[in-house]
Input
Amino acid sequence: MKARKSLLYETFKSYMPLKKYFIENKKPLLVGLFCLLIVDFLQLLIPLVIKRTIDTLTFQTATSHILLKYGLVIIAISLVMAALRYVYRRLLFGHSRMVEEKLRNRLYNHIQKLSPSFYHRTKTGDIMARAVNDINAVRMATGMGLVALTDGLVLGLTAVGFMMVIDFRLALISIIPAPIIIYMTRILTRRMSTQYEDVQKIFSNLTERAREAFAGIRVVKAYSRENWEYEKMVQEGKAYIRGNLRLAKTIGLFFPMMAIFTNLGLAIVIWLGGRQTILGQITTGDFVAFISYLNLLTWPLMAIGWVTNLIQRGSASMRRINRVLEEVPEINEPRHPQVVAPIRGEIRLEGVGFEYPGQRGLALSGLDLTIEKGQTISLVGRVGSGKSTLLQMVPRLFDPTEGRVLIDGVDVRLMPVKRLREAIGFVTQEAVIFSDTVRNNVIFGREGISPGEFEKALSVAHIQDEVQALENGMHTILGERGITLSGGQRQRLTIARALISDPPILILDDAFSMVDTRTEEGILNQILEMRRGKTTLIVSHRVSTIRRANLIAVLDQGKLVEMGTHDKLLEQRKEYTKLYERQVLAQELEMEH
Ligand code: ADP
Ligand code: MG
Output
């Protein structure tokens, strides 16, 4: 009993974050529930009208006038019921849609604020499952669950009440199958929803496989693997049919089972109630009304069985959603933000160390580095030496696990996060393009960008001509829903995105890897021109780019191993010289093409 109670309590508690939406929306909710109760009440009146009719018929007091009156009563009841049903469906299902929308927005807004370490731990698929399946389950629980629970309880209890008024003993006996109906509904609806989910999963596998095969059709053809792909598709199709058949079997079992048990009740009533009618203990009208109530009872019984599932599933989903909502972003707004003057761009790293969450070993350690305002610095080092990790510390995508990062002498953790990030233009290693227009991809929601600034950013990034050549120019849609750009074009667009606000600090992390050497040089010339007096951090593979920095920092296994100008580092003939010689060779090879 105790376990049951705590389960009920846990279920109830999981829905608490929705409380405010229920309060906000209490008027339509109460009106909706009120209409629902009236409909239930009217429904219960119908058997009474039938009883009256039959009694007047059996006692031979019926006149055509009376019969017409009863007929009209039934019509009136049905009309009012229809109208009120419409009203409560709109109000109550409308409420559940509202809850769904607010919860989804809240979840989205929250997830967006979480730190990269959350995304690191959580699969995108899981986040999508929270946003789609779990929110759906909550909607079902707060909409259909609420309606069917109220409806089922009220209609069920009052129907039983009316039956007891007619004949107490008969009522008790005829509801013997009721618990079986509730139990069977619970079991079978649970099985149905699991099987339904399986079917959906198989279907999404099937479509994903088809999508992949068509997207990669050139590879499939080049290897002449059409039959192999076809066979895999046939297998998916078979699995889909098997899943659907399993579901059909359960559904096929459900309704006949329900019919058997409801008819069992009916049989009991005919046998025992019929006898009581003959003995004159109840009237023929009572007998028929009793049967009508028993019929009315079928839906509430199934509803209760079904709804307890809906509410439990919704509760499990709510618990998963709550766990995400309880996640605290690790990159926090400082409690007492230091109001800084406009950021100038001096960057200092003091004893910076960093360990990726869930990873053993330091990605960065003991890093001391000062970049003066207006300097251009190149970070060089082998793949995995920690360049990208270091750069991510500046806009606080990660906070160092040891030491600190200062900008203009202020710890970045004490700056308002928005101010800090707005002062930094960051071209990440992955050139991320969103499904939107060229213009929106570059301006990216920032305000007060003039057409001239937009043009300038495109021209410095050497992408202007290509944008103009597109059918709809800067209004062309890119990404999944639009045209596909080459890797180099994507990179140049993301460079334009970073340049457009002319930030005091610019970070280019491997931003030219898919751009040819000559274009890289062209872009770099203009960027360095444009950024005179401003701080710029560059990671590039090409020596022609690296050597133009005022300062070169060489990283190896997360440590700063050498630092200085190009010429000075070459003289030292250490790590940098090795890297340099390798890259000169690579660049010469590239130039020959
Ligand atoms: P670089 O940019 O110089 O190639 P990174 O900064 O990307 O180097 O990587 C430095 C080290 O951190 C590598 O050992 C790499 O495996 C590790 N690392 C990079 N990104 C992650 C991540 N998201 N999670 C865990 N480890 C990472
Ligand atoms: Mg990198």
